[in-house]
Design goal:
Elements: H1 2-13, E1 21-25, H2 29-34, H3 40-61, E2 65-72, H4 80-103, E3 107-111, H5 119-132, E4 139-146, H6 148-164, H7 173-177, E5 190-193, E6 212-215, H8 225-236
Parallel strand pairs: 1-2, 1-5, 2-4, 3-4, 5-6
Length: 246
């Protein structure tokens, strides 16, 4: 890990420009477990180890925002046993990891809806945000019960209410963005999807309009610092034009 950090640091000092905001679709936990004759929950638990690695590495190399697609609006359609296990696992992670995140100056932010989670889990989520709100290092954004289409719908409802109450007289893309779930968080520069699938699965649909996208065959439990560095290196080799010519 130190070698990766040193190489990135040297490159950053020269022409290596790290993305400010990296978002990750963490796919492949279930398949990773099934390939080993285990149940899907075993894969999710193993995936937590990769989460720890990527958070620590992102913090150490100076990434400012890291968004992790933790639980989607569609994930409620999974078998009830798996959903309950995921909720329990997420609750345990929050209880266990927040002290270290606070110690490492990481600020935790949740994006998504919070109306369908249990009172106990909601309290843990709110506590995580409250405890770390003054931290000034990595901003860890956890997309939980999140769906890109739902965010756009919810944003439209907010805007329609403002228009109805004559609180808004002009609307463009910049004004629209101000009404998203987390408007203060910049759009992702780089979106990484693990697991070999080539789609964005309803993730940050509005915010990803000009994001660079990196797909890898590596399943999430096997995604470590070196794989993350490969994605970052690939990002730096791209030319971002935002619709403009050279």
């Amino acid at each position: 890990m130190k070698a990766n950090k040193d190489s990135l640091g040297k490159a950053k000092e020269s022409s290596f420009k790290l993305p400010e905001h990296v978002a990750i679709i963490m796919d492949g936990n279930g398949r990773w477990a099934q390939e080993r004759g285990k149940n899907r929950i075993f894969g999710h638990k193993k995936g937590v180890e990769s989460i720890r690695k990527i958070i620590r590495h992102s913090s150490s190399i100076g990434i400012k925002y890291l968004t992790l697609f933790s639980f989607s609006t569609e994930n409620w359609n999974r078998p009830l046993r798996e959903v309950n296990a995921l909720m329990n696992l997420f609750s345990q992670i929050l209880a266990k990891e927040i002290p270290e995140l606070y110690k490492n100056n990481v600020k935790v932010v949740f994006t998504g809806r919070k109306t369908r989670v249990s009172r106990d889990l909601l309290e843990k989520m709110e506590n995580a945000e409250q405890v770390t709100k003054h931290n000034t290092g990595l901003n860890l954004v956890l997309a939980f019960d999140y769906g890109g289409r739902q965010e756009i719908i919810d944003t439209c409802v907010k805007i329609c209410n403002k228009l109805k109450n004559q609180q808004l007289s002009f609307l463009d893309s910049k004004e629209f963005s101000k009404h998203l779930y987390q408007p203060e968080i910049p759009d992702p520069d780089l979106i990484i999807r693990t697991g070999g699938e080539f789609r964005i699965s309803n993730f940050l649909l509005w915010e990803s309009a000009y994001s660079e996208i990196y797909f890898t065959q590596v399943l999430w439990p096997d995604f470590d610092e070196s794989e993350f560095d490969k994605a970052l290196k690939n990002y730096t080799e791209r030319e971002r034009r935002f619709g403009k010519t050279k």
